[in-house]
Amino acid sequence: MQTPVTIIGAGLGGLTLARVLHVHGIPAAVYEAESSPSARTQGGMLDIHDYNGQLALQAAGLMDEFHAIVLEGRQAMRVLDRDGTVLLDKADDGTGGRPEVQRGDLRQILLDSLPDGTVRWGHRAGSTRALGGGRHEVTFADGSTVATSLLVGADGAWSRVRPLLSTAIPEYAGTSVVETYLFDADTRHPAAAKTVGGGSMIVPAPGKEIFAHRESGDTLHIYVGLSKPQDWFADIDFTDAAAATARIAQEFGGWAPELAALITDGDTAPVLRPHYALPAGHRWDRVPGVTLLGDAAHLATPNGEGANLAMLDGAELGKALAAHPDDVEAALTEYEQAMFPRSTEAAAEGTHLIELLFGDDVPHSLIAAFIEEGQTL
What we know:
Blueprint: E1 2-3, E2 6-8, H1 12-23, E3 29-31, E4 45-47, H2 53-59, H3 63-69, E5 77-80, E6 86-90, E7 100-102, H4 103-112, E8 119-120, E9 125-132, E10 135-140, E11 145-148, E12 151-153, E13 171-182, H5 185-188, H6 190-196, E14 200-205, E15 208-214, E16 220-226, H7 230-234, H8 241-250, H9 257-264, E17 271-277, E18 290-292, H10 295-298, H11 306-323, H12 328-358, H13 364-373
Parallel strand pairs: 1-11, 2-3, 2-12, 3-8, 5-14, 12-18
Antiparallel strand pairs: 4-7, 5-6, 9-10, 10-11, 13-16, 13-17, 14-15, 15-16
């Protein structure tokens, strides 16, 4: 089976690319490992920035649909000290440039904007190989294959397409988060709900942090961050939810009870999310007929830019292909030459954010940065 554009991965970046191509009348097929759109939950909240993610949605012609899923008030942000003292309390006045949406809702409007059959579910990429002449073949886990003259790896951190371009492998970035949820928080966890407030809350300390988001309804999504080696986490049995929770909570001894409760009162088992990153400034030489976007191209420590960059990558690649219909290589060159410095700059900002969150001078250094830059997480 052959298609003009073959996209591996139906995340936000791959779907944005498919949508922008569709807007310009260019057919594409998206191959996704998951069995259906509802095969798994799609993560938590995303702040979609007016300087990258929203530009991608404009190119996709989906701004009305985007505005319809924005959760009002969620740009509010609080920074607390570990004793519960509120150090910074920024209200959401509706003028911020980073409105919050649920990742699953954003993915759904992209899916709904594509022709039926664009996404081929249940196709987990196993390997890729060059066929010569700028053509490539993808072999899926079920043994089926697809050959294409334009292959785009939008398949995340552990991309199966990346080896066609680069030998780089993501490495552990030195921090991890443990994730849990509090449901019906206003009635079942009122102290925690009051502490978090109407948007996001962060409590940074040297080597550790608690970050919380108020999602749709009164669900609180909790991320407990620790700067620890992987071996430290390997000694925790995360199949024993109570024991794992107790071990993580032990790192926050002496913190205010309402903050500790964000860890100990979770309604879901704790899930470990290690942070990985590709080498700083990751790039590759131009290889005919193939490119990467999003985490497949520039995985970095979390800084609020990953999803936004993936969407902008998809939009910019789609626009470049539409602008050069008879010269794919010119389009790919144009796209990569802009994407490389853009992603390198964002990765550097992510490294700086980690220093602000986990460094010895928090929370004061973080608050100073917010006041200086007028930012929210």
